[in-house]
Design a protein that fits this description.
301 residues; 2 domains; 5-bromo-4-chloroindolyl phosphate hydrolysis protein; ChloroindolylP_hydrolase; transmembrane helix; transmembrane; membrane; elongated; 12 helices; mainly alpha
């Protein structure tokens, strides 16, 4: 549509699309941050606090069994809270790393079972209930946990619109390596506390993931994006990680300006790469890529 509009209108349309995409990325980051540490999960850290005075009272009154039971239950509650927290983080990572394979431990489910066991131990040893009643308390705690936090689903990492076996091994391995590099860039970007740079990194990461999904959807695009996967994504990772490490030790305007210019170039090249994959444009990207490569070298980041 933009090609039929005057240049000014086309630029305005492009700017509007970028603003909308930036807003979507911001909302997505907010949702991801909330999912990593949901507020209601804090209840799990508050839940075992009454056991601390209960242990002191049991110790002072010479009730050794109650003291040991409450102590074990307190440790189990903390273990359940830790497993739940890591379970939420694992769920976010699982949604981001779409091309990786491997066993995914059901951490959130394990956390729920641990909380249930801790509740049963508290009811049995701390409160002195009989075994059936203590088990009933444990089952009730597990049911409440599932209602509040849910359990791990049975999702298996899969490729977009395709099966891992349908891709050639070279393409599958390249996508897996590229995805790990993108995740590394994201982790390094989380250590950079500069709003403008974080916004640009978010767009770069989104473009890189879109390129991977497009290759998975149409493996013929692998040839067009080979240099992006094997060379320039690696360069982007080294630059971002290097700046993140330097940024925590030394922050200078010159370094920040150099890094900003490199990010602008990376975003432009990644955007062109993605658009050309969408358009099935077979034009050579070497010129654009060489510009990026020369700038990465000249900036010395």
């Amino acid at each position: 549509m933009a090609q039929w509009l005057p240049r000014g209108a086309a630029d305005a349309e492009k700017l509007a699309r970028q603003k909308v995409q930036a807003l979507k990325n911001y909302r997505q980051r907010r949702r991801q941050a909330a999912a990593l540490t949901p507020r209601k999960s804090r209840l799990l850290w508050l839940l075992p606090l009454p056991l601390i005075p209960a242990m002191l009272i049991a110790l002072a009154s010479g009730q050794f069994a109650a003291f040991v039971g409450n102590g074990c239950a307190y440790g189990l509650f903390l273990a359940g809270a830790i497993l739940t927290r890591h379970g939420f983080r694992q769920a976010i990572m699982h949604r981001q790393l779409r091309f990786q394979k491997g066993i995914r431990w059901p951490l959130k489910t394990m956390g729920g079972l641990t909380i249930a066991l801790a509740t049963a131990v508290t009811a049995g040893f701390g409160a002195g209930h009989d075994l059936p009643i203590a088990i009933g308390f444990g089952i009730g705690a597990l049911a409440a946990y599932i209602l509040l936090y849910g359990i791990d689903g049975h999702q298996i990492p899969r490729l977009v619109k395709g099966d891992a076996a349908s891709l050639q091994p070279a393409i599958r391995e390249a996508l897996q390596l590229a995805e790990r590099q993108i995740f590394s860039i994201e982790q390094a970007g989380n250590r950079i506390n500069q709003h403008e740079l974080n916004e640009r990194l978010t767009r770069i990461i989104a473009l890189a993931r879109d390129i991977l999904f497009e290759i998975a959807r149409d493996p013929r695009d692998f040839r067009r994006a080979r240099k992006f996967l094997t060379t320039y994504l690696d360069g982007a990772e080294r630059v971002v990680k290097g700046y993140a490490e330097t940024h925590t030790q030394l922050r200078t305007p010159i370094l920040e300006d150099n890094f900003r210019r490199v990010l602008v170039t990376i975003e432009e090249v990644f955007g062109k790469q993605y658009q050309r994959l969408l358009d099935n444009d077979v034009r050579d990207l070497d010129v654009d890529m060489e510009v990026l490569e020369n700038q990465l070298k000249s900036e010395g980041l």
